[in-house]
Amino acid sequence: MKLEHIQIQSNNIQQTAIFYQDVLELPIIEKKTNSISIQAGNSILEFVENADFKSIYHFAFNIPENKLEEVIQWCRNKINLISIEDQNVVANFENWNANASYFYDNNGNLLEFIARHDLDNSQTEKFSSKAILNISEIGIVNENPLELGKQLAAKHGLEFFSKNTNSELFAAIGDDEGLLIMVKPNRNWYPTQTPSESNKTEIKLENKGMSIALQFD
Description:
By secondary structure, the chain is mainly β. It has one domain: 2,3-Dihydroxybiphenyl 1,2-Dioxygenase, domain 1, CATH 3.10.180.10. Helix content is 14%, strand content 37%. The strands form 2 sheets. The protein has a 7-stranded mixed beta sheet, with helices on one face. Strands 2-3-4-1-12-13 form a 6-stranded mixed beta sheet, covered by helices on one side. The longest helix is centred in the C-terminal third of the chain and has 12 residues, at 145-156. The protein is globular, with a radius of gyration of 16 Å. It comes from Flavobacterium fluviale. This is Glyoxalase. Residues 2-116 form the VOC domain.
């Protein structure tokens, strides 16, 4: 499953443009009065301005499976990675065969670089923002994640992530290429103490050759 286009909100488009262009070094491919679109590998991340928006999102970027240590070095003097415990900034997801590091953008959104070791995407070139592969996860907050997952499966032919233990608190739809991470409201986004909130999110994804548009409020 591929997350082709994610549309989320920001209360400061100008500062968002500066962060993604100057700090993460990702190209802005479209800029309008109240929105910007950013190229992140094979995905497009769009921010729409809402002056009253005060919440946050969680999303992740896939990186080459052998590049997390280089990413950590690349982030020095750019962004502060979040400590998982002590001074360690690497999260280990054994069941998913993946490692990740987390950070915040200018909006307070919780972002993640994740290396999924079951994907054959290792690279020999030195890491740069051009090596960011795609948006690999977007968080969706819903009162019943498991039921929402079942509805998406029935309506669109999507599938639960086979490596995840899906439950009424936390469920994932998709695969290593792209995931909808569904959680209940007020569940803290790992590895922070920031509770999840339901926010308007529009998603265009591709699954088994089919284009699917989803909207969550």
